[in-house]
């Protein structure tokens, strides 16, 4: 299966064509020169060597670990500590010198893959070392502290080596540490620990640590994961739903929670960094802003969000002070950053902006104004249950219709299908939420399915290369 790639297939077919007289020998030589047939055997040989080295390396590491485990109880604590650290550094150094070729030598892809694999293995050994050292030295800690320390250590490795896989692994580990430690943020006894500070300020740390890491690694995956960590941790820390949650929750909490992610994503510009003169992540950030708008509009279009919960004021008494757990510093810094980005967005063009840009900016600004004002009005001035549901249903339909129009105008499949699915989801959700009989629900499902199929087939036919286009 590894050899069944395009160059291999082309070489076999070209040899068959030459033998059957379909092409001349000179044409075969030209094809062989263009697709580097002579280098295929060398590539296969390097790949087999890499596979052999990888399997042998894994077996060697398993042998070392088994040997250490067999003699673990027999050695002193100092000897065990030296063995653990030696194993980590041996694999990390071996992986580094395989991943980074000596100066003046051409990089070998198979050796780089082997080196990256060893570096990932060293990252896992680093986590095992943390756990074993905590056991040896009787260090009491939680699962959250283990994963946070492990993830932050891998972050340092990712910054030093600029490897995408290490960056993604570090984000996953930090996320595990965050979610396992989130309960302690609300129900802890009040003791201040470093892990609780990390959990409390995770939205700010995600923006200040993982976004620069994405530039170091030039990875859209890392940027997307960093945006997810920021947005999800902000919602989990602020806990804005339902809007009438607790009597002592500040009324501005929900506005900040819902407004900050789309405001930061839409106004994001890579050129805010002084040393960057290209836009690597801005298109992705704009798409994430549209996803954020979709989620916020969809969630706030439900009635239960605007109602007072059944438990009323009978909330658990073990909760800590809510203002102590809220990331007030994070909200201040991130809000200032959002204002700075929007000022930069409005002033970055020397020429007058086009009418489409002005209209789009005005629409996005209107969306943000509704998200910020309507929940605040509902919590402080007067209850607007049904009006709030109506407003966000209208905003959701407007966003879906705008995506459909953008997809039709630019022949963009993702925009068109995103708008269609969002509009279909809104209709089905409203039918399921309100008390309707099964006959009406079945009719709505049939109509939505038929409309989705018809619109999809019509859209695909009008694209370049479609049926209607080919007939013309």
Verbal overview:
By secondary structure, the chain is mainly alpha-helical. Among the domains are: 204-383, no CATH class; 388-472. The chain has 19 helices and no strands. It has helices at 6-20, 25-34, 40-70, 77-99, 109-136, 143-161, 164-187, 194-200, 202-217, 220-238, 253-266, 282-300, 322-325, 328-347, 355-380, 385-410, 413-433, 438-462, 467-471. Helix 5 (109-136) runs antiparallel to helix 6. The longest helix is centred in the first third of the chain and has 31 residues, at 40-70. The chain is globular. The model is unreliable at 312-323 and 468-472 (pLDDT under 50).
Summarize the helices and strands and which ones pair or pack.
Elements: H1 6-20, H2 25-34, H3 40-70, H4 77-99, H5 109-136, H6 143-161, H7 164-187, H8 194-200, H9 202-217, H10 220-238, H11 253-266, H12 282-300, H13 322-325, H14 328-347, H15 355-380, H16 385-410, H17 413-433, H18 438-462, H19 467-471
Order of helices and strands: HHHHHHHHHHHHHHHHHHH
Report how far apart the termini are. Answer: 42 Å
Shape: globular
What is the rounded Rg? 29 Å
Beta-strand share of residues: under 5%
Main β sheet profile: none
Count all strands and give the number.
Answer: 0
User: What structural class do you assign from the helix and strand content?
Assistant: mainly alpha
Counted by DSSP, the helix tally is 19
Low-confidence stretches: 312-323, 468-472
Mean pLDDT reading:
79
Helix content: over 70%
Q: Assembly state here? A: single chain
